[in-house]
Design goal:
Elements (H helix, E strand, L loop, with lengths): L1 E4 L2 E4 H34 L4 H24 L3 H23 L6 H39 L1
Antiparallel strand pairs: 1-2
Length: 145
């Protein structure tokens, strides 16, 4: 069976390989770059509150490990959920840390919210790609039967 993209018929195995490559490598690279930004930007600038820098270093290190495994082994719903939850934490952390009377710099707040938003969006897109791939496999299996 062929899957139709624009005007060309693409064999289903090629379509699956394409979706798998986008899911595992392209989105994984976006996640890795965003995670690395959490480490590199605060260390390079030495600007901002130490509380926020510690948060960014811990979350960035954790995410680089998770995303590295994701790229090496291939993504899963679990890895996407972990990245998405870490992204949500980054979005919320400036406000949570700010409410606890810890120091949060405006630059750190912008970085955390921007990186968190990228990570949440990438994990949602990744989950949607996995869902589309599963649906295409089920449709092809139903067509063969």
């Amino acid at each position: 069976m062929a899957v139709y993209h624009s005007h060309h018929a693409v064999p289903s195995t090629q379509a699956h390989a394409y979706r798998k490559g986008i899911h595992d490598q392209v989105i994984g690279l976006v996640m890795l770059v965003a995670s690395a930004a959490l480490w590199i930007v605060p260390m390079a600038t030495q600007d901002g509150a130490k509380d926020a820098q510690v948060n960014e270093a811990l979350v960035g290190g954790f995410l680089m490990f998770v995303v590295g495994l994701r790229i090496y082994r291939g993504g899963s719903r679990r890895s996407d959920a972990i990245v998405g939850l870490a992204g949500l934490w980054l979005i919320a952390s400036p406000y949570v840390l700010g409410l606890q009377e810890t120091a949060v710099d405006n630059g750190s707040r912008v970085l955390d919210i921007a990186v968190g938003s990228v990570l949440v969006a990438a994990s949602l897109i990744s989950l949607l790609i996995m869902r589309a791939d599963r649906r295409a496999e089920h449709a092809e299996a139903a067509h063969r039967s």
